[in-house]
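Risk register update: the risk that structure generation would not scale has been downgraded. Supporting records follow, first protein first.
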Amino acid sequence: GINAEYGYNNTYIVTPFPIPQLTGITVFNLRFLYYVYMGMLAVFCTNAINILAGVNGVEVGQSVVIALSLLINSLLNLNTDALAEHMFCLYLVCPFIGVSLALLYYNWYPSEVFVGDTFCYFAGMTFAVLGILGHFSKTMILFFIPQVFNFLLSVPQLFHILPCPRHRLPRLHPTEDVLTMSVVKFKTSDVGVLGRFCLFLLTTFKLINVEYDDNETITMSNLTILNVVLKAMGNTHERTLTIYMLIIQVVCSCIGFIIRYQAVRLFYDD
């Protein structure tokens, strides 16, 4: 492997198809950019877990599914030349799964324990450390497909292309014990050309609900994967929403394994 050839403290990456065929370069040294990438990965992992916080069981549940995916991935690689990296992963991910399952028991609806930022940052940084020091960060990102989707969906609000309220969590229905999509209201004059283009794309792909109260006011569902699920499934109980999210996480992990062990052959040599 690349670590055996260049050592563990390297900043080399293996180039995917068609770069080797066009340039003859099979490995490339990112140098200081690799450290920038590691910093960005650590920030993404912590915030990807934290951004969905607030619904009982979601933060811990998604972390358990991701950790189990990493566990299975490492077990599948114990007979490769990356044994040391995957043993390192097992040393950390096994106790992480243990404590997270215990926490999930008390964080499941109706929650007796609220995990807050403490667990989200702990979980995210654990995954970042495993991906970076285990030298399988690309594989790890494959297990973050729902979180990557949520980030990309949230970009217009996170970068204030569209108005972003302080809280974007689903709302509790005033008379029924179900969650509904959270919304934000703004004037059409508050949105620029790029914002109107984002609205067009989001409505075209049916990712949001948009209502025009009058000629000047727009009511838009917030840009989160939780709201997308509620839009698709309708108003639902908080426990049911958590189950939907965990099913999505499991399905996406299965897709990640297919990409990692089958589709990857289209871009990398065995």
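Supporting record for the second protein:
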Amino acid sequence: SVESSSSLVNTRCYIDGMGESICSPSRFASVLLRKALPQLVQQVPGQFTQQMPALEKYVTAVEAAAFERSQLSGQMRLGPAAFLFGAWELAVPADLSFSDVLAAYSGALEAWEQARAAGQLLGSSELPLLVVDEANALMVWSDQHATELRELLMFFVSVTKANKRSHVVLATSECAFTTWLNNKIGPAFWDSWVIGDFTQPQAKEFLSLWLQQLGQGCVSEKHWTGTYQVGWAVSVQQLLGV
């Protein structure tokens, strides 16, 4: 059932910018469709997704793919269950533009928030977290994609600072990335955290100081063990209690 499977789903999505090759808008949109959107939609009852036209267009495309793969009755509306058939692995549907995909993700975040407020989420209630590793891959988008790049960066601003629907972490070891990002959207919409190659004690001390600055107290031994083994980005929600 969807309910029994939802415990395996959380609100964190990690995108490996190098491995996924997010070097163009279509590639980035494909990754959002395959990785980020399913994790949200699987947690949201159908009555909430149906209120978001942009998201409903995406869900309909996934349901069609699931119908093909599973040979289920054409009369059955699958809703979140469609994702159990791996239908989210489809490439970007031809009728979904880059803007459509971002709108669908925004719709999913809004539907997720409405379900959370109503106490009807099928999974974690932690604020969604999108981590884009090797985010410097965005720097190589060609000039012909300048419009889409601007749209993506403003989308990040919209779902974080403006509407507070998600966390977005752009991770990179490229020193020029911060200058590039400043030139694209200015310094008012993002914060920079510089993390070096720490030993375990150094990493724990750094994270403890950072949490104290945010008024979140110290790192518990329970959370620290998992954080150091898995990586700070995917565990930051647990540490902040969001």
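Confidence is low (pLDDT under 50) at residues 1-8, 72-86, 237-242. On this basis the risk owner (M.S.) recommends closing the item.
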